[in-house]
Amino acid sequence: MITKNDFPVLEFDDDLDAVVNPFKWNLEPFSTDKLIITFFPDVMNDLKENDELELERHFSGENPVDIYRFKKNPEIMITLGYVGCPACAGNLEVFASCGAKKVMFCGGGGVLDKNIKVGELLVVEGAIRDEGFSYRYIKPSRYIYTDKKITSKITAYLEKHKISYLTGLTWTTDAMFRETKALVEQRKSEGAKIVEMEQAGCIAVAQFRNFDYGAIIYGGDDVSQDEWNTRSWDKRKGIRYNLVMLCKELVKEF
Question: Which residues is 78 bridged to in the sheet?
Fold first, then answer.
């Protein structure tokens, strides 16, 4: 049943089915249920060039997607994420319909506090839902939260291995070019530490489809000042590779 609202994005339908539903497509199951979604094409290219990956599945279409397995760890798959909730979280639902049940996300995001260093890890505890995608999966709310059991497994592993990290919320937005100074300050006051474009949607799909999901975002560019500072965040090759390798270990913990 649809809950009516003056604003379409807030109209929620609690019908669990949909006209287009990947869970009805009878897709061939993956060979494993563990998946890493990364936003680091440089790392993916290096892994392929070093012959560390083999193809698990190719999804064709106008926006093709490749899923790989690690040759030395064939129980773990990895794919390059698409930008934004509709692309990234939409693909995640297809992956879930193929049997992905333990998913670890790693990417970078803009820091809302200049004191968060480049490469500093944020274990995502939830997101401010400043987008539209998640509202089709979970009833309207200002925040959406990751599963505390999964977050605890991630932080326990990091502490055991003496890896420094932060915990907190992200701000998920659809509009990267409308991160105004006032909005940055408001989201920061609400507890967000990093701005990104996928977490609210991915968390919503995980809740809706009932699978394990965790995410680590590393501190990237700085949007907390009057002038944007890229901090060369996308050139931090070592940080990005190490984060993918860390996620390989973390997804085993789920």
Answer: 36, 68
Residue 137, pLDDT > 80, answer yes
How does DSSP classify residue 22?
A: G
State pLDDT tens for residues 142-176.
Answer: 999 999 999 999 999 999 999 999 999 999 999 99
CA gap 214, 104 in Å, rounded = 5
H-helix or E-strand containing 3? strand 2-3
Question: Beta strands 121-130 and 143-145: pairing type?
Answer: antiparallel
Per-residue b or e along 177-197, where b marks 16 or more CB atoms closer than 10 Å to that residue's CB: eebeeebbeebbeeebbbbbb
Q: Is the dihedral of CA 95, 85, 199, 48 positive or negative?
A: positive
Q: Which residues touch 70 (CB under 8 Å, ≥6 apart)?
A: 47, 52, 53, 76, 77, 78, 248
